[in-house]
Amino acid sequence: MRFEAENSRDRTDYFDLLDRQISRCSRNGTVLGLLIARVQRIRDINLTFGYEVGDELLAEVEAKLEQILRPTDIVARIGDNEFAMVLPEIRNQGHAILAANRIVQEFFEPLRLEQQALQMKVVVGVAVTPDHGADAEALMKSADQAVVQARTAPDRYAVHSSGVERASTKTLTLERQIEQALDNDELVLAFQPKIDLSSASVSGAEALIRWRTGSGELVSPASFIPVVEQSDLILPLTVWVLNTAMRQAATYRTLVPGFSVAVNLSPALLLSRDIIDAAEGAASIWGVPPGHVVLEVTEGAMMVDPERSLEILDQLHEIGFRLSIDDFGTGHSSLAYLQQLPVHELKVDQTFVLGMERDARNAAIVRTAIDIGHNFDLKVVAEGIETGAALDHLVALGCDYGQGYYISKPLLGEEFQSWLGTAPWASEFSTVGGPNSTDKPLVD
Ligand code: C2E
Ligand code: MG
Ligand code: MG
Fold first, then answer.
1. What is the value of pTM for the model shown?
2. Which segments in the chain show pLDDT lower than 50?
3. Which atom of ligand 1 is nearest to the CA of 386?
4. Atom 12, ligand 1: residue with shortest CA distance
5. What topology does CATH give the domain 186-439?
6. Most buried among 53, 182, 299, 335, using CB within 10 Å?
7. Residues with a beta carbon under 5 angstroms from ion ligand 3
8. Class of domain 2-161
């Protein structure tokens, strides 16, 4: 039996059926298990092979699920990449776990589709009556929350546990909102200029994501990137950022020769080759030389799996991308490890730069970071320059590049483009003592 639960009528039918099955099980003293399987990487497959292949693949997944389960179990597609499975009249939770485990195992084998072997990852959330819900609505919610846990579970399945309920509902909602924002073009990039401190000219900009909600409000990445980073949405989101940043950079490059664009990469992206294909693909589509693309990663990112990350970074470096260590000074990487990294620049964390005028210890950290960078033959960027005094101080310390509100806040596309043409700060910079800056035009 099968339901397309995407429209509301099907949904009501499905919930009715689930409620009837739950009542039957409770009458005859058996347990009902509800599994939700989420197929990950389907977006990548859609992007790489097209939606037709993605659809065929989901049909195959559904057939395989039906084949794995008993004939009396009910499989329903409940979302773009999710299936719910009702297991009526089982003896206890253990049977639902066995089924979840079997599903995960079966999908370790790649699915074959027209000569291609497609490897997918399936995670399964488990909920059972009456412990995790006494009606369809409650049970679905519990299984949904279990799927979120399953994503990071070593066995790829998880049984609902009530303690995580509140946090995960919030997480789940936010993740869905961002997924929709991606589909509905509600994400935008702001660009914050990066200035070459020795010549007082614009060398490039960092692309920073924002979510423009339906009501026009701009939501900061700090409130959604940490959630997206924990999900498989981070890759499609980054593919979007890379492509959008490079598309816009292609225009800015015509205004500012040598303009480079920086994009932030989340830690989880350094664990798989996907990011290499994504970055290389975007650079080639938009005709931006990899040497003018900076990929920013934090020290922490490399600590998740140092060996694997090093491999990925080496390959990005070989292609010619420039790599930057973001938020330098806040992580725990050893100098021995840093020295092995194929990076080109260090970005001193803004907390030290923000505090350097008030606190001599912060100023000492900034000075030390600049020395470390230069001793390793790296360029050093200071972020968080909010005052002329800080800018002046950094120039005196020999810092190579600077970013901060004093120069400009991150600006949305058109605003940034007009800033490039009219940037007023060059003259202010010359008054705070920047070398060679007096008559230097900001944009060649
Ligand atoms: P980040 O990469 O360290 O970016 C610098 C942050 O400092 C930005 O915040 C920027 O707006 C802010 N900033 C710049 N100058 C100043 C200043 O003078 N004073 C102060 N107080 N702040 C300044 P934003 O845009 O809110 O981004 C926050 C973080 O979100 C970023 O930190 C980055 O880690 C993450 N992020 C942003 N966009 C992306 C993205 O596309 N992908 C990923 N994975 N992470 C992103
Ligand atoms: Mg950054
Ligand atoms: Mg930073």
1. 0.69
2. 1, 426-444
3. 18
4. 384
5. TIM Barrel (3.20.20)
6. 299
7. 326-327
8. alpha beta
